[in-house]
Amino acid sequence: MTYTTIELLGAIFFGLAVIHTFLVGRILALSHHFPKDSMWSNTLHLLGEIEVVFAIWASLFMAVYIGVEGWKAAIAYQKSLDFIEPFFIFAIMVVCSTRPILTAARQGILALSTLVQKVFRTPAVLTDLIIILIVGPLSGSFITEPAAMTVTAFLLNSMLQKETSKLIYALIAVLFVNVSIGGALTPFAAPPILMVATKWNWDFQFILSNFGWKSALAVTVNAFGLILIFRKQFQESCITLREVEQRLASGHAEIPWAVTLVHLAFMVGIVATAHYQNAFMGLFLLFMGVASVTLRYQDQLRLKESLLVSMFLGGIIQFGAFQKWWLAPLLGSMNEILLFKGAVALTAITDNAALTYLGSQVEGLSDASKYALVGGAIAGGGLTIIANAPNAAGYSILSQKFPGGIKPLNLLLAALAPTAVAIAFLWLL
């Protein structure tokens, strides 16, 4: 295992950033010990925001990079990076959080939930939640995982009126895990699959037959398991989608179908051009103009939240190349079982798309090892916020449900059960 000085420093700074993510709750609590709006209070509050952690450490690392390698080398490194994913998540998160898109999604889920309630005579709140936690994540296989995460998290947020710490951690854990595996029905929606599909010649049929049906079953089991375990708490803490619809309808102008269709067209266009930054950013800028002339049917665009999520992912990308020296040899030294288990564990501290990309650079991987790497990466995608790129978007939307900020260790513990379900279906079947 050989490495350069800058590669070692990149790994060290990345490790410090990961440790920082586990301390954000304590840092945020510490900020309250100083006078409000004082320099120390504001500084600690900034350091306690999980979305800025990797951006801060990436900035410090780039300053060190300039000092060690020089300005020209640092610029050359920056030019070599691909920031398409953060830009895409920014654009799709803004579009999918608009009132017309969320209304269309809510009404579609409500229609399906109403049908299920009539056929099986099930409670409205619990049926709504189950449908959201199944259909939402699985839709990520077609509209991409970031879009599915955004819509699903907003629907859950609108239903939750009060919650306990145990309930909200269990809910967000299942959401993260289900979105991570829910995009595995197609080769173009889940980032960890997208990274290797072309290189390994994995087409739609291969993905569906090897990952898709297993992931769909795991998503369903996780959704039903969560609702069954916390059914009493959910009935006490949530309102139905129909109640959400009635409350919003009374305070907002009815959205014309043409406005909804235009918004859906922009969403589809951005998703279809997700791998072409100039194309989807051009569509997004045009969408901003459309949003400005349909203000009557809009809520405030979530630009700040989307930018924070993009900054979070951009910071992770800054460190990606400097993990190859230790990660690629580690992956190459494992057999199939160890590789699957190792991928699950490593995903918790390394974005799963980066993990599969680095694994694809290892020569001579068997077909079984390739499956183990990708299966483990998507199974472990709910263990931490950094494990799967869309997780940051989901947390940003639900962050108000965590008054003291999310505690990464609590999320990790809550995600163990749904992750175990994903492991069972993806490895044992």
UniProtKB/TrEMBL annotation:
Highest taxon of the lineage: Bacteria
Key word Membrane present: yes
Assigned keywords, A-Z: Membrane, Transmembrane, Transmembrane helix
Record protein name field: Na+/H+ antiporter
Stretches that traverse the bilayer: 12-34, 54-75, 87-109, 129-156, 168-191, 211-230, 251-272, 278-295, 307-326, 338-359, 371-389, 409-428
Upper taxonomic lineage: Bacteria, Pseudomonadati, Bdellovibrionota, Bdellovibrionia, Bdellovibrionales
Coiled coil: none
InterPro entries: Na_H_antiport_3 (IPR009978)
